[in-house]
Amino acid sequence: VRFWMPVAHTPEKSLFVIEPPRVTxxxxxxxxxQTAPKPIPLSRWPVLGPRLRAVFADLLxxxxxxxxxxxxxxAAAQRTDAxxxxxxxxxxxxxxxxxxxxxxxxxxxxxxxxxVKALRxxxxxxxxxxxxxxxxxxxxxxxxxxxxxxWRPYEPAVSGTRVLVLGDLGCLxxxxxxxxxxxxxxxxxxxxxxQPIALVPCDLSRIDRPLRxxxxxxxxxxxxxxxxxxxxxxxxxxxxxxxxxFSYCVRVEPGLLRACRHLLxxxxxxxxxxDVWQDEFFVNRTSxxxxxxxxxxxxxxxxxxxxLPAELRRQAVRAVQRWRPQGHIGCEIHFEELSRLSTAxxxxxxxxxxxxxxxGWTYLSQYAASHCATKRSDPVLDYxxxxxxxLSPSTLLNPDVGKLAxxxxxxxxxxxxxxxxxxxxxxxxxxxxGNDFLARGESDTLAYEALPPRAKRVASLxxxxxxxxxxxxxxxxxxxxxxxxxxxxxxxxxxxEQWRFSIPACVSVTLRTDAESVRLESCERPEWxxxxxxxxxxxxxxxxxxxxxxxxxxxxxxxxxxxxPESEPGRDSDExxxxxxxxxxxxxxxxxxxTQQLWTALxxxxxxxxxxPERPVEQVSWNDVAQFVERLNNHDxxxxxxxxxxxxxxxxxxxxxxxxQWEYACRAGSPKAxxxxxxxxGQITILGEHNAPALDPxxxxxxxxxxxxxxxxxxxxxxxxxxxxxxxxxxSRPVAMKQPNMWGLHDMLGDVWEWCRDGWRTYTAESVDDPxxxxxxxxxxxxxxxxxxxxxxxxxxxxxxxDESGGRLGDxxxxxxxxxxxx
Length: 823
Prior knowledge:
The chain is of the alpha+beta class. The chain contains 19 helices and 36 strands. The strands form nine sheets. A seven-stranded mixed sheet has the order 7-6-5-4-8-9-10, sandwiched between helices. Strands 1, 16, 17, 18, 20 and 21 form a six-stranded antiparallel sheet that branches. It has a six-stranded antiparallel sheet with strand order 22-23-24-27-36-28. A hairpin with a 2-residue loop joins strand 13 and strand 14. Helix 6 (232-245) packs across helix 8, helix 6 (232-245) crosses helix 9 (296-305) and helix 11 (331-338) crosses helix 13 (351-371). Mean pLDDT is 86; it is low at 145-149, 416-421 and 637-651.
């Protein structure tokens, strides 16, 4: 089993930068068609008319002498008692038309109406009766006729009537029961002396032989031939190819479906339109248009469309554009569709079309930012909400409009001032289970769920649309950049949804969402470590320091909002404004604060008040820690077996974390006041000065640090007000007794404060990369985390404090990091 760990990170910083809204875009498609196209008929009347007349006609004496045949008879000495007259064909004395308006025949509704209009012109209402209904259920049919009410129940045709069925006789919906009922109806008509006829919108080979024995069947398409049946596999291939041609569409009109079918020479069977109409691709169907829903099936079809020949793609997109005329549907529909296409496909069209699309997305995003807080509903916001439901991973990952789409979704999700309306995940956590991967959608507002058995945490990515795209890199090029494969189709995850997938043999993998991406590499044991492995919290490494085992956890590079919002309980003003921080390098961090056991392994004395090898060392100044770090970096055990050097981790040094590194590691992806553990959301409720129940599972603080305290020199805590639990003596506690955060770090909050490398920084709203890396030689340093004596409001991820470099306190310790080398 290979261990994977994130080593590089690329954020979409501007996604969470809140700027004053200003609507600058516009909804305008300059090249929009002015008129709607006319649907292509299944068959034009000059072709269809003679075909029907051949089965309708009565042969009557016309009254016109047939001179040629009369002369032939005389020359042959045949009897000539009666003159030979030319025969005259007419449509028959009475015709009854049954128009089947079944659900699966919606693509042919316009064709049915054209045939009815043509027959009315030829026969008049006196000889034509039209009945409308559904399938073979004759009780659903009603009829129209002369001198009658507009609608009457169906009555059987009288003897001698031609009965024409405009439908498929049940063959296109593959209903055995329906086919049997149509056959019974045809036999009943024959017994009554009527002539059953069927005009079917499919190849004649798809009509069952028993039906053709009863009905006189005629094909509706331009070509009636088709005695050789197409195999089901071939028909399925043609259906999928048709779906590919309009896979990116928001709506598909029957006329657009037929226009796409005419682009394929092999798709001559009109019945393919019904097959497509019944496919699971569509979630909503009306006689006007059908609508696909967001699903992995649709995404796979879009990806297949991008592999089709360029000319076929160009023709398909042009056909779609013709069905998006100005005034018929809004141009925003077409912009939504174009944003699902790849750059290569969009280059086949006019550049102005894509410029108008970007401007349209800009308008919608800015409009939502400007009006969501003041309006609950208006036409633009209503459409934006429908757009949010349909948002495709292809759109969210689009380099030009993906950020605008994600920002629109974020604005809509927070429009009601609560937790948001979208069911898509706020975060995607990727786990490794054996050699497979498991991605699961999570919400920052819901309690964190424990990991499945044997699952190892690989990465956690922030997302707005819940979309994840996995891109394996199968080989490295000469300049060291890995070649990317098309990868696995993007997947959109809802909260609580899981997606298991495997990747091919590769050198690295990129996990990409609409908010950030991380690159994974197959890791090796760091050269400084004595042991390493992977568990539910990620990759760990052990370092032996003179018989003391120190565990380190890998903290991946990433981005986060540093500081706290104004609404957070217990907040101080120096925790804001919140601002975007990117850490370009990962680091190894001690899983616990430095223990007294580790300190005494390198230092001559133990300054701690609460003496215990398992407790954190305290009463150490920043300058004392600097001496310890120097000794640790110079520490070398000749008996230690060093592992091979990983390309991602060249030799570095141990040191204190910066304040930004500390808060990023403490949060472990949590945007709330506390880091999350299974069953919690990370939110804090402060019931009293020393009482916040959410702290008890994760931290030793003033409300619980005296519970079970066993040392005699504990701090007198009897007069501490509003304690969560009663206690008389308090002090520091052994490390790793509380639940760790999602990176496996214990006691990041409570027990002891922890020194940081850098000094005090006044926050601003501007985003910043790697703050505090160039730590100045100043008199005071930041301390973070709160301690065992701390009030509840202090023990939060964003709380800040500082102390002089020479200061020593009974609740002040430290932990170290080893930062990934810049190269």
